[in-house]
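Onboarding guide, step 5: your first structure request.
Type a short instruction followed by the sequence, for example:

Predict the 3D structure of this protein.
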Amino acid sequence: MGTGFLAWACLLLATGAGDTDIVHFNMRGFQIPVRIDPNRRAEVHELILYLSKDAGRTWEIAMRLSPDKPGFDFMASNDGMHYFSIAVVDKRGVQEPADVYKAPVGQKILIDTTKPLVKILAAERVGDEVQVSWEAQDERPNWSTMKLEYRVGATAGGLWTPLPITQPGERGNLRFRPGLPGEVVLRLSLQDMAENLGTVEQVVSATTAAPVTPVSGFTPPGTVPPPSSIPPAPRADMTALPGIGSTPVTRQDAIPPAPAPYTPPTFSGSASTPATPNYGTTPSFNASSTTGYSGSSSMSPPAATPMLSSRGALPEVQIVNKKEAKIAFDVSRFGPSGLGSVEVYVTTDEGNTWSEMKINGGVQLPMPSELRGNVPVTGSVSVNLPRDGQIYGIYLIVRSRAGLGRPKPQSGDAPHIRLELDTTPPEAVLHMPKPDTSRSDTMVFTWRADDRNIAPNPITLQWAERPDGPWEFIGEPQLPNTGSYSWQVPERIPPRVYLQLTVRDRAGNASQARTPEPVPLDTRIPELSGVRLSK
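The system replies with structure tokens like these:
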């Protein structure tokens, strides 16, 4: 096997420029494509992706790939520097390179998913001028992308006017004259080398303050003249449970103490099979998220484009728990050529930048025989959401068989639908129930349930005589997350039962915490009222 046997096509992305041999990337999930010489493909048994997280000191096998696949779909577990090398194993079992420690590093990828932290420290009017100071922090900032902009009027839709930052850095200040009355909205933004975008806005009151001595630290470089005219805004055409601690929940202090002398243990929780997701309401543009499928895909980071004001309100975020989500759409008008293709564009910064998403099939369009006049039709497309916790804005373009379709989304255009991937099950902690000293035959349940997308009424409490069920509800099937619940124990219930807590989030993920042993529901100790000799 020679050097022409395998060619790296690693990422092939237009990412931020850093060290010449390092690729900065702002997603943990991506594809590492490989190309094999077609004349030698039959000789290949498999490809091995080696990974090093300590700059090449140690290597581990991250993935294996058959030669008929286009590349490695890699998902990193953390941010930081990742070294990759690929080895080829032929049909005889011979690996090249034989020793990854002695071979050159194939690709160095620095994964950074943290946005820069930007703050406007002070912003106020001084006469007819506005005085502003700021600071910005990031481990790998791209200072050339720092922008300070303003618009007059707090209503969205106005044109942002850039202000000159002569020396971008961690701290700065500026004084300028807006030239028009009214509130002034300031926007500060900064990208890092991986093109993560940090941004902040602040409104300066329209009230003109009396001239004052400049704030300490300001060195006004002059004033910025107002624009001679303000053009109109551009238009768009358009299962072990998680570990459980014994720390009581906040509401537990309102529960009367139990007379029993035992110390309440806690029980661990685990992720169960996700329930059917609730994807929320369908946006007005008639695109909706439906049941998804597991999978992953590569995505290129969005190219840097000028940021304009938002054109259109952002739709509500819909939560899904599968990496592949199926989006349905309606087409109300089309020509005699019918529908030919679908393009998908994605944004991760609320429409400031857009990039086209590779969909690799997964498009369903009606057949020409199903098109009748201008009767609306429905299609669908499957999209891949690589990173957990990231909000993806999706913009669809449907083209006719003649190739005609709406223009591509521009900076500031609102997405048709917004999706967030959430595959993390909620935290579920169930404490040992205690008797309610103020009510007879009543047990008080306490728990801890937490999730960034926790569902409304996410709690289900159940009991069973055996660990495999059947399970009976305690109270309503869906209870609010109050942290405690008082249960009047029914008559003729077994004296010892298993207890189970289920916690659900909005994506349909669920966790359960269950007592490992049956719990006594009758905790009252019999007391002697008299002792005598019986005849």
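Each response can be followed by summary notes, for example: The chain is about 0% helix and 40% strand.
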